[in-house]
Automatic annotation (TrEMBL):
Gene3D superfamilies per the UniProt record, alphabetical: Hypothetical protein af1432
Protein's UniProt name: HDOD domain-containing protein
InterPro entries in alphabetical order: HDOD (IPR013976), RNase_Y/CdgJ (IPR052340)
Species: Pseudomonas benzenivorans
Superkingdom as given in the UniProt entry: Bacteria
Cited Pfam families: HDOD
Species lineage: Bacteria, Pseudomonadati, Pseudomonadota, Gammaproteobacteria, Pseudomonadales
Span of domain HDOD: 25-212
Length: 283
């Protein structure tokens, strides 16, 4: 037990050092900043010029094409070129997909152990985001891509924890990593999003995610969809309250609020294949 406590103390010290030195945290890539600046000035940037800028990142281009062709959008005609994709998605949606791509590409993996922890976390986050997006598409009100990005950013601090384990430091075990995320993930997420200068709405999501009882407005809002998605990926969490007790659940109307035998939403269980397909486009 003493050795385990010492082990955790070392990891905790590394994460604390990371939090006190913002420069150690990843910055958005230069190309991402250029693309986002261009997207913020649509009257000055035409589609061909924007496509040329995005085309400098083949992985981002591929993600945009996959996303535009995903079941989430259900476009009548599949876009064939990057310019077609930009026209289908629109500037605001492209901006959000650019941020989704950047999140995954920001964290340097220093070893097979780092990669294993990252991929497990990313797999869960993309599944969570896809559940959120699917629910958003079904119930309306909030754009699905807005919800996906909010969901991914809600736990970006957990990915940032991995930034502490570099310079030859061995990554923690999955159990230790989960403990560190619970202790520091939220604070790191807020620090990181402020560094990236994202909308305050996303920062507030980081602060309030997992607050199952919070109800600020009567209508279903962004936080509610993020919490519903998160709830469904925490299937093995013994501390998770019944779904029917969530403030977000109380805002769902029939038939969206029907529950399956395992306590999850029927809507999610019945469309699990569609959700998995969407998650695959984000990985």
């Amino acid at each position: 037990m003493q050795a385990a406590d010492s082990d955790y103390s070392i990891y905790r010290q590394l994460v604390s050092q990371l939090m006190s030195d913002e420069e150690q945290l990843p910055s958005l890539p230069t190309l991402t900043l250029e693309i986002r600046r261009a997207l913020a000035m649509p009257e000055e940037v035409n589609i061909p010029r924007l496509a040329g800028l995005i085309g400098q990142d083949p992985a981002l281009s591929a993600l945009l094409v996959k996303y535009a062709s995903s079941p989430l959008l259900r476009t009548r005609v599949t876009p064939k070129t990057l310019e077609d994709v930009l026209r289908v998605l629109g500037m605001q949606q492209v901006d959000r997909v650019v941020m989704m791509h950047s999140i995954k590409s920001l964290f340097t993996l220093h070893s097979a152990g780092h990669k294993q922890l990252f991929l497990a976390a990313w797999h869960r986050l993309t599944l969570q985001g896809s559940i959120c997006a699917f629910l958003a598409r079904q119930v309306g009100r909030i754009p699905a891509d807005h919800v996906v990005l909010a969901s991914l950013l809600s736990e970006v601090g957990d990915l940032a924890v991995l930034s502490a384990f570099k310079d030859g430091h061995l990554p923690p075990s999955p159990t230790r990593y989960a403990e560190l995320c619970r202790a520091y993930g939220r604070s790191l997420g807020v620090i990181l999003l402020k560094k990236w200068a994202v909308d305050e709405e996303y920062v507030q999501i980081v602060r309030e995610v997992d607050n199952w009882s919070l109800q600020r407005v009567r209508q279903l809002e962004l936080l509610d969809l993020v919490n519903l998605g998160r709830y469904h990926v925490l299937a093995g969490d013994a501390e998770r309250p019944p779904l029917a007790s969530l403030a977000a659940y109380a805002k769902l109307i029939a038939p969206y609020n029907e529950l399956a035998l395992d306590g999850r939403l029927c809507l999610v269980e019945q469309h699990w294949d569609d959700i998995q397909t969407l998650a695959a486009t984000l990985r």
